[in-house]
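B., you asked whether I could sanity-check this one before it goes into the benchmark set. Here's the sequence:
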Amino acid sequence: MALSCIMVLCLMVYRLAEWRLRQQLATTNQTVPNQLKQPTNRPTMRWMFECFEGINLLTLPSPGGLQILVQGLEPLHQLVLRLLGPSVSKMYESSN
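And here's what the prediction gave me:
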């Protein structure tokens, strides 16, 4: 029963992210490439997650604490992050 509740919660978050992205794409009149490299304003989150593969988070010790670097962000990633909102964008910011 607990596993079912967790799965339903995960699917709800997944669907809300997809809805938010599609809503923002329609509002701003923008598109992202689909699997066939054609522009679409109705991408699936499954495809967006695949597009985000290869992004690395690098944590380095520094005199002032830990320095976190995000590697591999491309313009598509930055667009999707901006469209999902500042709370999501903040997770991908490098910090010193």
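One thing to flag: The chain has one domain: 2-91. Otherwise nothing jumped out at me.
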